Amino acid sequence: MGRVGKKRSIDLGFRLGTGAFALVLVVIVCAIGFELTRQSMLSIEKFGFDFWRTEVWDPVAGQFGALPFIWGTLYSSLLALAIATPIALGIAVFISELCPNWLRQPLVFLTELLAAIPSIVYGLWGIFVLVPAVRAFETSMPSALRQLPMFSGPPLGVGMLAAGVILAIMVIPFTSSVAREVLKSVPAAQREGAYALGATRFEAIRAAVYFARTGIIGAVMLGFGRALGETMAVTMVIGNNPKISASLFAPQYTMAAVLANEFTEADTELYLNALIEIGLVLFVITLVVNSLSRLLIWSMARPARQDAAAVVVPAAESAA
Amino acid sequence: MLQTAVPLPSPAAVPSLPVAPAPAPDTAAKITASGLDFYYGPRRVLEQITLQMRRNEVTALIGPSGCGKSTFLRTLNRMNDIVPGARVEGSVVLDGRDIYAAAVDVVDLRRRVGMVFQKSNPFPKSIFDNVAYGLRINRMTRSREDLEGRVEASLRSAALWDEVKDRLHTSALALSGGQQQRLCIARALAVEPEVLLMDEPASALDPIATQRIEELIYQLKSRYTIVIVTHNMQQAARVSDVTAFFWLGRLVETGLTTKIFTAPAQKLTEDYITGRFG
Q1: B27-124+195-273, which class in CATH?
Q2: pTM to 2 decimal places
Q3: Chain A: closest CA distance from residue B115 (Å)
Q4: Most-buried pick from B38, B58, B148, B231 (CB within 10 A)?
């Protein structure tokens, strides 16, 4: 009896212990939110909701608005997503469906290596390689095209496009690894079912991708989350100019970049508070994006759960 | 709704699905495997299989696990092609043509030789879209009405229409296991195959759902050549005309089902069907 009792108490202790660790997560998230709010009270009280929608960022005059940074963060992240998603999915499909066996491991290793490169190294590469390339690309564009708002502006090289490209490269390994795992978990029966109906290889792969669509959306959203918060490399190539512009070539600014750049220069309480509020805004936007993607995945995955229920009760249903 | 002696449905009872060639029972061989060897890498899984499968008959492949019966079934529509390291020697002749010849279009072959799997594998789409899938990828329909007509005809052929006609556009995954398997049969029938391969189609189903599948097989054989792998000896005896007994990658004995189950020529066959091993 003693032994059983001891085992029980070990089980209980284990549950409480791991539960406490899980609780730490919740506590950390709440603490971050609370602390960010507390430290930016000055700015919150002074600007209120206008902080979210004013374009002026003038530390000398004590005027602070987050809109250019919100714009820059969302623009650069969405641009990165637009570039990275097709490439990452292509990589994932190639590795999981088409790649010869001997090539698979090296490719997986290489994509994971891409994720391990420090952000500052990407930034250096961006400054020395990507920025001149973007500059050359812009000057080589026909002038008629450069009249468009999307491509206007002087050929600086630094700007939104450079930031989007570098973010895309940094996001690709995450999106493609998750998408690859998701595709790997698609039952072989799905592909065979398609083949058995006269599907070509392309059509069978499409069936597998369709089966894995919720997971693939999750992979894309994971990449989006990464892009939102990425700091160093973006700071080095985006141009750091708090002006809202639709142009791909205009220097702009992101929330993470302004924090990295100006934190040490914040000489007034209000300035510091405004910067911390930008951190709070970034925190809230990331939270919202992640919750929305969760919700999306959840709503798409629901029929699958009905499937599980149907498997349990086939006898009852066919007897009815 | 349970029938035991079903009269063969006349072709006219099932409208827009074209009827397999012969009105009178044509018992010529539809598929003939000769001297078939199959390898996974260096390992030989099938050895010198020679077997005829005739039109409008159900051929059952029986044998213990790992005897190669499923592998053999999958050589008949070249499903093993997608397995790395798989290799076939010998020939499989469908309507006078070797399906392993270089000029054969595998995609078209798989359309002509349909397959139903052990575990039902509907796509995570609506019931309608599942049946329409093969019609769409093979571009077999001219209009929306045509598509709808063929989907309905296929669902009727698979004895599923009455159960799902009011919810064609709901998820196929919400169907019961037996309904999902009949949906997979409907899906296979939609692309107008000539041969239907079934890999233990009822092994994951309860007895009532199994009985419905067996009735269905009985009804379908007037229009198709059917080859079925089964673990279940009674099932083979109930649904098949011809039985082939596989053992360790060899074809031990083949003959009329009535004969195999009453007076097998080989001692091994007798031991297996009487349950002495396997």
Answers
A1: alpha beta
A2: 0.80
A3: 6
A4: B58
